[in-house]
Amino acid sequence: MANEYWSKKINNNFNNAAHSYSHYSLVQKYFANKLVHIIKEIEPQIGKWFDLGAGTGYLADLLEKNFMNIKVQRIDFSPNMLKENKKNSQTILWDLNDDLPPSINNASLIISSFCFHWLNEPEKKLRKWYERLLPGGLLIVLFPNNKSFPEWKDTCKRNDIEYSGIALPCTNSLQRFVKESEIFLIKEFNYRETFPNIYKLFKSITNVGAQTTQKRRKTVSELKLMQEKWPKDQDAKVNLTWAISILILKK
User: Fold this and answer.
1) Exposure of 86 by Cβ count < 10 A (0-12 exposed, 13-18 middle, 19+ buried)?
2) What is the span of the domain harbouring residue 184?
């Protein structure tokens, strides 16, 4: 029941952010382009391609633009997100906590970007997703890992404030759920965002629907303290650093 309530909160927040998501999802777009560059170098098999947690379809659109004769099926649990996909897109409304749709089978490419960490017990999904690949097929998962947001975490720790971000996957821990021979590539990247203040920073998270947390909301005094104590750059702006993992498995 707790997982069901948690999933519903996540769904509602992303559903409500569908119209603003494309405008504010700068980190997601940056790494979507990076993913396409990596996939071009790998030269995956042409066949059935699926985007799990496709959102508004930015990554799927890039894949279809860069690979001839490919149609990417877009799977997401938010009906409003899927409505933002371009006309005639192949979409499936589906909660990825419920395994995968039966139609996803013998896939040449299964890709998931900025979705994996929102799932219940995400590490267990790797095996199930991997099993839906055909021989030689690729599973590509991109997610923010547990090294993300050091500025936020350190500010909270130094000032005795509860950190309210969600727990993020550890890349090394995930490797226990797959065989070494199945790992094709692991890469980690850092990406830094800059904001005028922490209020704009937290607003940016809400604008893409990623504000769901099981922690209590911050009080006004706590937010003021965080704004005062958060490390500033020479222009008095605040930074937020993402640690991004890309895990690629090959069957």
Assistant:
1) exposed
2) 2-146+167-191+243-250
Q: Give backbone dihedrals phi and psi of 200, rounded to 5 degrees, phi first.
A: -70, -35
The per-residue b/e assignment along 91-116, b for 16 or more CB within 10 angstroms, e otherwise, is: bbebbbbeebbeebeebbbbbbbbbb
For the cut 60, the answer to whether the pLDDT of residue 76 exceeds it is yes
Structurally, the chain folds into a number of domains equal to 1
Q: Is residue 225 situated within a structural domain?
A: no
pLDDT tens digits for 191-202?
Answer: 999 999 999 999
Pairing of strands 49-52, 107-113: parallel
Residue 194, both tokens: 């800059």
* Element housing 185 (H / E): strand 183-195
How many alpha carbons lie under 13 Å from residue 28 in its C-beta half-sphere?
23
Contact present, 161 and 185 (Cβ < 8 Å): no
Give backbone dihedrals phi and psi of 241, rounded to 5 degrees, phi first. -105, 125
Handedness of CA 118, 22, 186, 241 (dihedral sign): negative
Spatial CA neighbour of 130 closest among 104, 164, 150:
104
**pTM score of the predicted model:** 0.94
Residue 31 lies in a domain: yes
The C-alpha atoms of residue 120 and residue 98 are separated, in whole angstroms, by 10
**Sheet order of strands, 133-144 included:** 91-93, 72-76, 49-52, 107-113, 133-144, 238-250, 183-195
Q: Cα 94–100–105 angle (5° rounding)? A: 125
